[in-house]
Design a protein that fits this description.
Structural class: mainly alpha
Strand content: under 5%
Order of helices and strands: HHHHHHHHHH
Helix content: 55-70%
Oligomer: single chain
Distance between the termini: 46 Å
Largest sheet: none
Radius of gyration: 16 Å
Number of helices: 10
Length: 177
C-alpha cells in the first residue's frame, strides 16, 4: 500500500502541470521532485537522480514548449533500459513519456525519434506502458499509431481502452464497414 501511495503521489507530480502546478515556481516544482524522488528511491522504484532529471526536463519542456535532442536521447535511454529491479517499470516509463506530451514545437526529426522509441511500449504486457504510448500518440495528434492503438480499444483495462478510443477519435479514424 505504501508503494502505491508513493507511486500515486509521484505520478501526480509526473503529469503535474495542472492549474495549481502552473502557479508554482520552477524552484518549487524542483523541490517537490527531489522530495518525491527520495521516496521513490527508498521504495526501490527508481533512483532519485533519474527522477529529478526527468522532472527538470519536464519543467523546461513545459516552460518553453520545446525539447532538446539531448533530452529526447536521455528519456529514450530510460525507456530502453529501465532497471529490472524496479518495483514499477511502467511508472518510470509513464514519467519519461510525460515529458514528450508537453512539447508544442518539434525540431527536425524529433517526432520520428519519439515515435521510434515509444512504439515498442504499445506491445508491452504492462498496461502503464501501453497507456504511456497512447498518451504520446494523443499528444502528437498523428495517425502513425493507429495500427498499434486499435488492439488496445478492446483492453480489459478500462482506462487504457477509453484513451485508445479517444486517440482514434482525435485523429479521425473511421473503421471500415
Amino acid at each position: 500500500m505504501k508503494i502505491l501511495t508513493v507511486v500515486s503521489l509521484a505520478c501526480v507530480t509526473a503529469f503535474a502541470f495542472s492549474a495549481q502546478a502552473v502557479k508554482e515556481t520552477d524552484a518549487q516544482k524542483l523541490a517537490l521532485a527531489k522530495a518525491n524522488g527520495a521516496q521513490l528511491e527508498k521504495q526501490h522504484v527508481m533512483p532519485k537522480t533519474e527522477y529529478v532529471q526527468m522532472r527538470q526536463i519536464a519543467i523546461q519542456t513545459d516552460d518553453t514548449g520545446t525539447i532538446s535532442d539531448k533530452d529526447i536521447d536521455y528519456l529514450s535511454g530510460i525507456l530502453r533500459t529501465t532497471d529490472k529491479s524496479s518495483t514499477a517499470p511502467g511508472f518510470i516509463h509513464l514519467c519519461a513519456v510525460a515529458d514528450f506530451t508537453v512539447i508544442r514545437t518539434f525540431g527536425t526529426g524529433q517526432k520520428q525519434k519519439i515515435m521510434d522509441v515509444v512504439t515498442p511500449l504499445f506491445s508491452s504486457k504492462v498496461p502503464l506502458d501501453q497507456r504511456a504510448a497512447v498518451a504520446v500518440a494523443e499528444a502528437l495528434k498523428d495517425k502513425w499509431a493507429i495500427p498499434y492503438v486499435l488492439p488496445l480499444v478492446n483492453s480489459p483495462n478500462q482506462v487504457l481502452s477509453k484513451h485508445a478510443q479517444a486517440y482514434l477519435q482525435l485523429v479521425g479514424y473511421q473503421p471500415k464497414a
